[in-house]
């Protein structure tokens, strides 16, 4: 939009450069035009306001109340910071869900990105049929947060599941992975890692952008495959890595579906899969403590925002933009 | 809306090619945007159907296809007798039902009549969502004269009749008859002590190669019966009816059972702890017994080809009571409250309707009609559950109070603590202490 070159003030919404003499007349038109703009925006705007912005603000208000869903709004009591206080001082299951979510994200996200990058490197060649392979590797992430996939996962990784039958071929006795509190979360991590298709596709696109002359120059300087990867590929790819890292971290923190399905919505066995969002859901809808759940949601939002800020502020130390200057 | 804009007044002589058309289009769009919600509102008003003299009662329940068909037939019957009343029925699976009910309530638009169970009755009653039916009962508009008094009492919260029992059930220990006969093992009987039950299960494990009993230490209904046999209860007023010592004893009882091989391994116990009927170990073949409700027998039977038997939980059977398997409640703010009460009265007391509904929601609450239904039924599994429940009814003890606010959390905490002990991550004493502390927090808030 900003790229429109023709300076046509009647068609641009912001026309502060116009001569003052004609302001009155154009003002009306601008008004009409602006109105038209809003009318055309309205489907999106109503959606944003009604479904996102207003409920979000309401939840901020609710986070300072003892709202329990069933009590009418008029009888809701303002409790100040009590919900936040309770979260940090006297709710062991909240802390537990924070730990579960952190360990999930800290392990699953880097491994997922590594898998995506590794496969992207393998698939970044001109083999015949490589397109089909890319498609196949991308397939799992198309199924995204699907419930069906989580159900398949549960059946693959229980005691009688396919994975244990596979292990049995090598004489290894498997575990009841999804029903073992020591392994249930790890099973979810594997599921998340397996769905590396989306970042893989982005990595592939990034790899194609790396100029071949850089590799040629490196070869001339006598760099081996590893040196080329470390000194050419990684720096050139760093903006893409950064993008994927931010996105996948946010996704990782918000994992819900698989944990919900695997544990029948309880976070079990023994809270081992009690992800933050699942805990939030149980608090709000099963325990009916919607005010407290709202406070949890806001702490979560702020935490994710902080992490993203940290990413962006450290990015300048390692993200290299190829247009000559590091931003 | 706006003063007419003269086209020639536009800057640098530019004119709109078709200003009028544009403006008209614009106005049309605006009108459409403004009017859309109005249309929606008008449609919503139409739902009340006040215009054609008919009243529409909304009704919401959880359950499967079979229940939906039976209920729809019973409601059709009501419409036949009262042509001015029609129904807007909504039903869904149990999972997610209470989320939806809570959301509907929050939106100020709950159904006139809804199905609810003892896990949530107190939550809703305490917040005045449910209509107190006492007034209708006193006026004779709601006939409860044929109800067992304890069953009726189990719908009373804080002195208000918050829900009308839609059916009665009680705890039932279901065992795999085929497996026992095949291995020449004795069938368990009502009145066996807990120790005898565990010893029996150990024997089954050894001879049949299938764990004798599911470890029910995570199951609040088994824990509850056991507590009542110790002279305690799950709740006492607004407090817990038990102590850490009681829970420790309960967990230790089952630790012993696990150690002696009477139960499956912890991961299998965990599978069986799911409330889903299809996952009960007695039908998945992973254990010889499961701890369920008697009225779940026909449903369990559908999931296995083996023959099943059902008895009371171990110990003194008088610890069991006539539990309302579920209730019908009326929304307090319903515009058609009187009619809604008449409908639930019909569902409970009309001979034809009760016959149609059968034992799908538990044994009919109306004792006269219960007899008729049990004489008529041909489904062997249903017949069996009716017989057992009728027999148990002879020894039923007094109903406990309806579980208090925070009960769903207490249930979840019991599962967590018991599984902690089962997986060996905590000793029975540690798990018990953790459970009681979590419960106190849950019911305090």
TrEMBL record, chain A:
CDD domains: TM_PBP2
Gene Ontology cellular-component terms listed: plasma membrane
Entry's localization field: Cell membrane
Biological process according to GO: transmembrane transport
Chief location of this protein within or outside the cell: membrane
Stretches for region Disordered: 1-25
Chain ranges of the ABC transmembrane type-1 domain: 98-311
InterPro entries in the cross-refs: ABC_transporter_permease, MetI-like, MetI-like_sf
Topology with respect to the bilayer: Multi-pass membrane protein
The UniProt record lists the keyword Membrane: yes
Pfam families per the UniProt record, alphabetical: BPD_transp_1 (PF00528)
UniProt entry keywords in alphabetical sequence: Cell membrane, Membrane, Transmembrane, Transmembrane helix, Transport
Residue spans crossing the bilayer: 38-64, 102-123, 135-156, 183-207, 228-247, 295-319
Family annotation (PROSITE patterns): ABC_TM1
Family per record: Belongs to the binding-protein-dependent transport system permease family.
Protein name in UniProt: Sugar ABC transporter permease
Organism listed in the record: Micromonospora zingiberis
Taxonomic lineage: Bacteria, Bacillati, Actinomycetota, Actinomycetes, Micromonosporales
Automatic annotation (TrEMBL), chain B:
InterPro entries tied to this protein: Bact_solute-bd_prot1 (IPR050490), SBP (IPR006059), TAT_signal (IPR006311)
Domain of life of the source: Bacteria
One Pfam assignment: SBP_bac_1
TM spans (from-to): none
Gene3D superfamilies given in the database record: Periplasmic binding protein-like II (3.40.190.10)
Protein name: Extracellular solute-binding protein
Organism whose genome encodes this protein: Micromonospora zingiberis
């Amino acid at each position: 939009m900003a790229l429109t070159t023709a300076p046509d003030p009647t068609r641009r919404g912001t026309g502060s450069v116009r001569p003052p003499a004609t302001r009155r007349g154009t003002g009306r038109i601008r008004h009409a035009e602006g109105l038209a703009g809003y009318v055309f925006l309205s489907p999106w705007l109503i959606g944003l306001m009604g479904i996102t912005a207003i409920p979000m603000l309401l939840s901020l208000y609710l986070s300072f109340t003892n709202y329990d869903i069933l009590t009418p709004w008029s009888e809701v009591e303002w409790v100040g910071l009590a919900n936040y206080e309770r979260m940090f001082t006297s709710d062991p299951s909240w802390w537990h869900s924070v730990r579960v979510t952190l360990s999930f994200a800290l392990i699953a996200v880097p491994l997922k990105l590594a898998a995506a990058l590794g496969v992207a490197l393998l698939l970044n060649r001109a083999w015949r049929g490589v397109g089909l392979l890319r498609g196949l590797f991308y397939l799992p992430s198309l199924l995204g947060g699907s419930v069906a996939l989580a159900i398949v996962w549960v059946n693959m990784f229980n005691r009688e599941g396919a994975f244990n039958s596979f292990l049995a071929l090598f004489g290894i006795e498997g575990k009841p992975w999804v029903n073992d509190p020591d392994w249930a979360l790890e099973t979810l991590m594997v599921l998340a890692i397996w769905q590396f298709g989306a970042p893989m596709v982005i990595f592939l696109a990034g790899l194609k952008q790396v100029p071949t002359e850089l590799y040629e120059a490196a070869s001339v300087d006598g760099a081996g495959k590893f040196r080329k990867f470390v000194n050419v590929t990684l720096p050139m790819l760093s903006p893409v890595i950064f993008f994927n890292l931010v996105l996948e971290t946010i996704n990782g923190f918000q994992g819900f579906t698989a944990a919900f399905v695997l544990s029948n919505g309880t976070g079990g066995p023994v809270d081992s899969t009690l992800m933050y969002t699942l805990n939030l859901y149980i608090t709000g809808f099963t325990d009916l403590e919607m005010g407290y759940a709202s406070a949890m949601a806001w702490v979560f939002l702020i935490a994710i925002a902080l992490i993203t800020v940290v990413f962006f502020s450290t990015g300048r130390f390692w993200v290299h933009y190829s247009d000559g200057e590091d931003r | 809306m706006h003063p007419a804009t003269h086209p020639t007044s536009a800057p640098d002589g530019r004119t709109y090619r078709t200003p009028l058309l544009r403006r008209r289009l614009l106005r049309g769009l605006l009108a459409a945007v403004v009017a859309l919600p109005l249309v929606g509102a008008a449609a919503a008003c139409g739902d009340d159907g006040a215009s054609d003299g008919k009243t529409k009662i909304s009704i919401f329940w959880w359950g499967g296809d079979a229940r939906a068909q039976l209920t729809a037939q019973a409601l059709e019957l009501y419409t036949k007798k009262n042509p001015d009343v029609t129904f807007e029925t909504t039903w869904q699976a149990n999972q997610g039902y209470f989320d939806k009910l809570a959301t509907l309530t929050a939106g100020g638009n709950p159904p006139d009549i809804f199905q609810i169970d003892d896990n949530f009755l107190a939550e809703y009653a305490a917040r005045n969502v449910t209509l107190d039916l006492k007034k209708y009962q006193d006026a004779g508009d709601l006939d409860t004269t044929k109800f067992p008094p304890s069953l009726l009492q189990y719908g009373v919260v804080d002195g208000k009749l918050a829900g009308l029992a839609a059916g009665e059930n009680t705890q039932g220990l279901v065992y795999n008859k085929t497996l026992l006969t095949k291995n020449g093992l004795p069938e368990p009987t009502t009145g066996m002590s807990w120790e005898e039950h565990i010893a029996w299960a150990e024997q089954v494990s050894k001879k049949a190669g299938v764990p004798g009993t599911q470890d029910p230490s995570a199951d609040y209904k088994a824990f509850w019966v056991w507590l009542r046999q110790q002279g305690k209860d799950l709740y006492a007023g607004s407090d817990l009816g038990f102590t850490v010592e009681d829970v420790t004893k309960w967990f230790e009882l089952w630790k012993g059972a696990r150690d002696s091989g009477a139960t499956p391994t912890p991961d299998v116990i965990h599978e069986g702890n799911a409330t889903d009927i299809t996952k009960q170990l007695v039908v998945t073949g992973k254990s010889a017994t499961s701890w369920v409700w008697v009225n779940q027998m026909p449903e369990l039977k559908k999931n296995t080809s083996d023959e099943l038997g059902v008895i009371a939980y171990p110990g003194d059977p008088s610890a069991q009571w006539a539990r309302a398997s579920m209730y019908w409640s009326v929304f307090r703010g319903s515009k058609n409250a009187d009619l809604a009460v008449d409908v639930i009265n019909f569902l409970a007391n009309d001979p034809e309707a009760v016959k149609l509904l059968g034992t799908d929601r538990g044994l009919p609450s109306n004792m006269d009609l219960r007899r008729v239904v049990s004489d008529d039924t041909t489904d062997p599994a249903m017949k069996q559950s009716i017989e057992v429940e009728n027999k148990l009814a002879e020894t039923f003890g007094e109903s406990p109070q309806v579980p208090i606010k925070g009960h769903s959390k207490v249930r979840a905490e019991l599962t967590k603590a018991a599984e902690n002990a089962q997986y060996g991550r905590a000793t029975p004493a540690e798990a018990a202490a953790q459970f009681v502390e979590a419960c106190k927090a849950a019911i305090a808030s």
